[in-house]
Predict the 3D structure of the following.
Amino acid sequence: MSGILNPGSSHGGEAPVIVIGAGFAGASAALTLADAGRPVLLLEAAKAPGGRARSFPDPRSGRELDWGPHLFMKANPALREFLGRIGASASLRFEPSLDLTYRLADGAARGGVRNERLSFPARGGAPASLLALLRWRGPRLAARLSIARGLRRVLKEGPPAVESPAAESKNAGETVEQMLDRLGQGASEREWFWEPFSGAVLNMPAGEGSGELLRRVMCEAFGPGLAGASLGAPAEALGPFWADRALDAIRRAGGEVKMAAPVRRIRIEGGAVRGVTLSGGESIEASVVIAAVPPPALLRLLPAEAFGGKSPWRDLGRLRSASIATAYLWLDHPCPGPAYEALVAERWEWLFRPGAGGLKAGDLRTGEKEPDAPVAFLCGGADSLASAPRSEIESAAREAAGRLLPDFGLRRVLVVRERAATWANGAGEQAHRTAAETPVDGLILAGDWTATGLPATCEGAVRSGFRAAEAAQDPKGG
Ligand SMILES: Cc1cc2nc3c(=O)[nH]c(=O)nc-3n(C[C@H](O)[C@H](O)[C@H](O)COP(=O)(O)OP(=O)(O)OC[C@H]3O[C@@H](n4cnc5c(N)ncnc54)[C@H](O)[C@@H]3O)c2cc1C
């Protein structure tokens, strides 16, 4: 039954700011507004919060599993601030420094399975990182020295300016591959250092990913000191780790949250937002709406007729997504080791030992995992194994497990895949990313794909959420 709902009675009748989407972007915007005393209504289409960073119950194992394991960087200031505000910091464990174990099998390992470790110190600047690269037994010495030179040059160039449109900044539009050519990086340097890093950050092959985005992340990670590049993993599944806590924090701050409440349309009249209509037909009045949804969902929410057929968001159709697939593997006996390992010369890119409550406090490296916890293979990219039919992904996981984990029997494989896991990380797409503010009064955009200057990551999503909340509190936005 349709009707006009007008929540916000607890705020003296002031219409709420409506936030659409309970992913990192929407949740961080809603919490910031609620903390500032603004009435907020967060509407989420799904039954559970978290968006792409969500988890789900696996009835067969009785475990909560991530829709894909996530890693965060110490140099993720907005994300860490948000996690602190919702009380999740204690469940996020960081290594003291960037400490990466590589796993190789067969030809790449010259027979059998081999592990190599690249461990940067937490302090010591350039001399200490050079020493770490020299101690590393991955690629040949000449390649390691070349990596050090390439890294130094990236840091010297500095990050591209966020404010300047991509077309104006130096080396704009450059792919990662072109950037690595410019830095004189050879095949071995790419395989061992740049591609694992850029694949994880951009979820795209080097020939397509944006060099500018990678440069920004490298500068934020390695620039202020080596500790910024250290990686962290949640010690719980993503739902309990952050999404449930975020909703609790929003409610405690006086915000309202509705799950299973898909928005059908954002109502726009006379160039200004009037509210939203839910799929069930109900209308909710509001003069400020933050749409924190991915591009295709946004285009469905914005009625073309509101723009006389000339939508200001036509360019959003040019933004591309890329998939990520995860194969959970239940082995016949425990497989201790670091929380994550990079796989060299494999279709699968990472091996994870996910938290799911199994990591011992402060120990990502040798943490004893719960005996029955699965390990996970992860791969991504638009034209990669992650986009293949599910049956092919599963057989690739079984085949890789036989080679990379030869001492283990395989009891079960479960494949999960997000087709649009990341957005807009391509070199040619940066100019099409949109700012938070829009030509429509009261309509504000958020999401990892908006113009944050960062790749589509949780840090980018939270920065966009903070920015959207700021715009909503600006008299022009509200
Ligand atoms: C498998 C996988 C692994 C990843 N690994 C990492 C990682 O290691 N590190 C990292 O930083 N990032 C990682 N990412 C990316 C990260 O998850 C995303 O960048 C981030 O979660 C995006 O948040 P968001 O709020 O912008 O969008 P989303 O999470 O997509 O949130 C949008 C929300 O809007 C809701 N919605 C859509 N339409 C409507 C509607 N009409 N009405 C109401 N609600 C609606 C959706 O249901 C969703 O909950 C990974 C992503 C995936 C899928």
